[in-house]
């Protein structure tokens, strides 16, 4: 169940989310933006090994960096304005890189300050893509061997697997609701919580998660305790995902529910959603969560898909 406001024993007002098993305190007013930057739709959020927090949003500059206290540090990425979507920070041989999905039809690997190291364009698959059938990637994942997986969530509903140099290895999926078919494969991630890596796909339009082997073989479906899963983030044995229909969900190692956070089952039913008036939003409720991550201390950052942009930090209690 969603959390409710509470009073700490000291008498200091706090706001919490969670349930009897898991609670977080909302760090109100966490992000301190300079007057020169206005957030647009906030799609992605990541934390680096130093605890710095990066936001990927649809105004410019599109990547904004904060320290863990929410103090603004730097920004870059004007070229992703209006096209920013999936956002992955990945460690490779002791270094950290971003993988960004650009809805103009590109996936790019960059340094933490935005230098492009690799670009993946529309796959050369004429049976799938042409002038009318566009490639519109929404998320990216990287396997332990360096293979790159791209979810074409807003295009033709395929998953494409590449090697670390960007050469296409295989593709699977296509539009549909049958096993192995996809309807807006919006998010993708490599799950390392079990004896062998697995590929989790947020099959959002089908209101489910599909699990595949790393070579694209179907394994199982997860379709409980979710409505419109967007993406994934792992912390220890837990997986967390933003459910676009107004909550954040945490599952255990066996994909059983631990908690829904900030649930508002009225938000996505409002006229005009997700572009709701500012006075609708409540500190301890989510409207349209789109990106989420943990930091090393188990705190959570949530980015919401709303015209005003919204970033929430939840402190583990």
TrEMBL record:
The NHL repeat ranges on this chain: 137-165, 173-215
Q: Which Pfam families match?
A: NHL
* Keyword flag Magnesium: no
Entry's InterPro entries? 6-blade_b-propeller_TolB-like (IPR011042), NHL_repeat (IPR001258), TRIM-NHL_E3_ligases (IPR050952)
Any one GO MF term held by the record is: zinc ion binding
Q: Which residues form the signal peptide?
A: none
Keyword annotations: Repeat
> Record's superkingdom?
Bacteria
Spell out the PANTHER family in the cross-references: E3 UBIQUITIN-PROTEIN LIGASE NHLRC1-RELATED, PROTEIN LIN-41
Q: What is this protein called?
A: Uncharacterized protein
- The organism named in the record is Paenibacillus swuensis
